[in-house]
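Q: Convert this sequence to structure tokens.
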Amino acid sequence: MSNLFLKLSNMIMKPLLRSPLHFFANNYTLISFTGRKSGNVYTTPVEYKRSGHTLIVFTQRNRAWWRNFQGSAPVRLRLNGQDVSGVADVPIVDIGELFDTLKWMHPHLHAEQLVKAMENIVLIQIHLPQTEAVHVR
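A:
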């Protein structure tokens, strides 16, 4: 995905996910986090899939923002019109688990497409506290 397309997409998704029309993008959330080196707060839209009190997110390995979650870090989410907190991390997963998770998130992709995608992706888990997750659809 080109940087221009990514910037345009973010310009549309951020206001949409903050608006009452957020349900049009119900597989997306805004994730806000503090950069470990810069101390700046960053917000980016991400596609997710939910498994209990955990959100699963994939991003491209060449993007730098996911590195802030190595060793875990607190995050804020704009999820289904609500602000919730969580803890994000980048777990170490084996190739089979990565394939199965990617297939679960994108069941329409063929095995060859999944294998190719696995070459350049990183899995991020966002754990929601049970007290907050109860209120989130």
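The longest strand covers residues 41-51.
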